[in-house]
Amino acid sequence: MAEHYSSFERGDWRWLLQRITAVFLIGALAFHFVLLHFVNHAAEISFAGTSARMDGLIYFSLMMTFLVTATFHGVNGVYNGLINMGLEGTPKKVVAVVLTVASLALVVQGTRVAFAMAGI
After folding, report:
1. pLDDT at 25 over 60
2. What topology does CATH give the domain 13-118?
3. Could you tell me the sign of the dihedral formed by the alpha carbons of 16, 85, 76, 96, in that order?
4. pTM value?
5. Cα 109 to Cα 64, 105, 112, distances in angstroms
């Protein structure tokens, strides 16, 4: 039988955060689908409605948390996938820097959009 290999080390903070963000994202996605696909149908979604939802502190906080956790979860998964494929040395460091900068840019831009949608 093949030996199990993972770039995650059990007990490592990235391993733990990957699992925690996965659980949060499952709940956040369920909330998203119920609210925006069953309560409000696609034809009813508008800029004004989105802005109104973002005015609520709970919804705004959930969307901001969703932005950060989804970014971390996705980038951490891609990074570890590349490590599992054999990425090491200087290319590993370059990829880590590029992914970190891209993540920060995504979170900054997402935050700007969220604040604009909330009218802040």
Report:
1. yes
2. 3 helical TM bundles of succinate and fumarate reductases (1.20.1300)
3. positive
4. 0.81
5. 11, 6, 5
